[in-house]
Amino acid sequence: MTAKDEDDIERKISTFVETTNTDKNIIVTMITTKGIDRNEHSECIQRELTLDDLFC
């Protein structure tokens, strides 16, 4: 992930919370074919699902 990706995700979370007026927790989940490479920008992803998780 890049810094731009992280900023986009955080902006989308903020927009969602403002639009829906929710006070619930938002759990950011990424669905990928092989998983994500962890780096300093991937901390905003709390959960990930891979094809192995979906088709085991």
What's the gyration radius in Å?
Answer: 13 Å
pLDDT < 50 stretches: none
The helix/strand order is HEEH
Mean pLDDT: 93
**Helix proportion range:** 25-40%
Distance between the termini: 26 Å
Q: Estimate what percentage of residues fall within beta strands.
A: 5-15%
Which class best fits the helix and strand makeup?
Answer: alpha+beta
What would the keywords be for this entry?
56 residues; alpha+beta; two-stranded parallel ribbon; 2 strands
Please provide a brief summary of the model.
This protein is an alpha+beta fold and 56 residues long. Helices cover 39% and strands 11% of the residues.
Written description of the protein model:
This protein has 56 residues and is α+β, with helices and mostly antiparallel strands. The protein is built from 2 helices and 2 strands, in the order H-E-E-H. It has helices at residues 3-20, 51-54; strands at 29-31, 47-49. A two-stranded parallel ribbon has the order 1-2. The mean pLDDT is 93.
SSE map:
Blueprint: H1 3-20, E1 29-31, E2 47-49, H2 51-54
